[in-house]
Write a structure and sequence with these properties.
Layout (H helix, E strand, L loop, with lengths): L8 H5 L5 H14 L9 H17 L2 E6 L6 E11 L4 E5 L5 E2 L6 E5 L1
Length: 111
């Protein structure tokens, strides 16, 4: 039988974690998993704007990839309106379902 006084035995036998500390630890770990927004060059921004404009003018379906710190969201539908002052677009995805993503959050658009 191993002695509790050798190695890390004293602390291994008496380790307790409070729920508050566990929650704080899990919150901190999730914050560390956040990712930064990719920087788009002007050519990529023009391609995104062209795809949005073409979808709006010709009522064609477009796939938008919207940035999120943890997971990107894929939106597929038709652009029905463009809000220039607030820099948002309205994408209708189906029967009454729509979203208003900001232009700054869109990182990819394909027709």
């Amino acid at each position: 039988m191993a002695s509790k006084l050798t190695g890390n035995g004293v602390f291994e036998g008496s380790r307790i974690i409070l729920p508050e500390y566990r929650d704080a630890y899990l919150r901190e770990m999730s914050l560390q998993e956040r990712r930064g927004k990719p920087v788009l060059d002007e050519q990529e921004m023009l391609l995104i704007e062209d795809a949005i404009f073409e979808s709006h003018q010709e009522c064609r379906s477009v796939a938008l990839t919207v940035f999120s710190p943890f997971d990107d969201e894929e939106l597929r539908g038709v652009i029905t309106s463009i809000d220039k002052p607030n820099r948002k677009v309205k994408i209708v995805r189906g029967e009454g379902a729509y979203s208003w993503p900001r232009l700054e959050e869109i990182i990819k658009a394909t027709i």
